[in-house]
Input
Amino acid sequence: MAELPNLFFRVRENGATVFRLDTENRQRRLDMQQIAVVNVNNSQIRHHGDEPPTEAEQAEIESWMADRQALLAERSIDNIFRAIDHLSRTAHWAQTKASDADLEQFTEPLLLAMHDLRSVLVRKKADRMGHEND
Output
């Protein structure tokens, strides 16, 4: 049987709840003791309970947080490429298969979202071009 890790990270929207795993007890059952709450957005670690994380556990939590932040950044970029693909498929569907009722249902919200995105991208590109000329 594979050896259990020392810590378990219950992933939440903005981070994780961190539990210390313990199998060395009289009942030989798995105990999970909450020791911290991690926020990956602001890199905050809040200790929980009477026994704060050990130095080794603190280092493991910090390592998990760095790995999680990198994974979330990677997923964010992947989501952008998926959005590009989805927009292309949506254009094809609108051109080839959508009924007038279908188009009436989503045209305005989609146009507003695309206008907002275009405005942000144009502004950001202009800012980057302005910095290149400095």
